[in-house]
Amino acid sequence: MSTVPTIDLNNGTAIPQLGFGVYQVPPKDTKEATLTALEVGYRHIDTAEMYGNEKGVGEAVRESGLDRGDVFVTSKLNNGFHAHDDALTAFDGTLEALGFDYVDLFLIHWPLPGIEVDFVETWRALEEIYRDGRARAIGVSNFQANHLRRLIQETEVVPAVNQIEVHPYLTNDDVRAVNAEHGVATEAWSPIAQGLVLDDPVVTGIANAHERTPAQVVLRWHVQRGDIVFPKSVTRSRVEENFALFDFELSDSDMGLITALDKDHRTGPDPDTFNWIP
Ligand code: NDP
Fold this sequence. Notes:
The chain is of the alpha/beta class. It is built from 10 helices and 10 strands. It has a single domain (about 5-260), classed as TIM Barrel (Alpha-Beta Barrel). Helix content is about 40%, strand content about 15%. It starts with 5 loop residues before the first strand and ends in a 19-residue tail after the last helix. NADPH dihydro-nicotinamide-adenine-dinucleotide phosphate (NDP) binds near residues 141 and 234.
């Protein structure tokens, strides 16, 4: 089994650089899918209240027989709960659904810059959760450079991570650079762009040269850029394939060719205009 490196977040908490994402895993299948990932060797699971499947993640961690402390679990505050007290209540709901007394990482899922409640207010609730020891680290997701800068200027705890869309068609290097400047780790969501980048001839060419799959090459590109990734799959062979990233290396030239595929193509919403509340 290949060994997954850990990254030290800015508060000293160690996070496995490779995890398993459960967005769009149906709630009824989430326990099985997560158990498969844990069997394969993943020790980091990325869920969210919005995905409706926190319960299955918690059940899988308990049924796996692993110690709770051996699995890093992230969840996220749903849109619609940004007001201070709502955020605290929603966090209680997350712990209850997971069946845990703490999460490893808790994020504001979207900045929602157009809604009445300022995300600075939301962050103060997360700071309380963090100080109470109910989240080992706190962070944000989908924050653009200006959102992140303002949050850091106006509050005390610097986010441990910023989870943003990153893949070869959206390298998002501007936001990654601002994250790095402030000691905020970048987590790359939709790391294979939900499959979109896997047929790209540059990717397939590099995959053939290394006798690896396109998904492995793209995930390895993320790893060598230093980002944290958590590809999603409900297919066991792919869960295994996506885990086998640490016994080969891309050259500087391979890395450059993949980075050059950037075309600023978002597969998800634009955080500057996304203000959707379920
Ligand atoms: P991914 O880029 O991980 O792609 C998942 C898709 O690719 C699925 O359709 C899966 O199919 C397929 N796939 C997975 N592995 C392979 C492979 N080796 N070869 C071919 N196809 C493959 O997309 P996600 O959007 O799920 O992103 C990953 C995680 O990022 C999410 O699960 C979630 O945790 C997080 N995320 C966070 C967001 C945020 O706003 N913070 C937004 C979106 C995602 P199948 O399952 O059928 O095998």
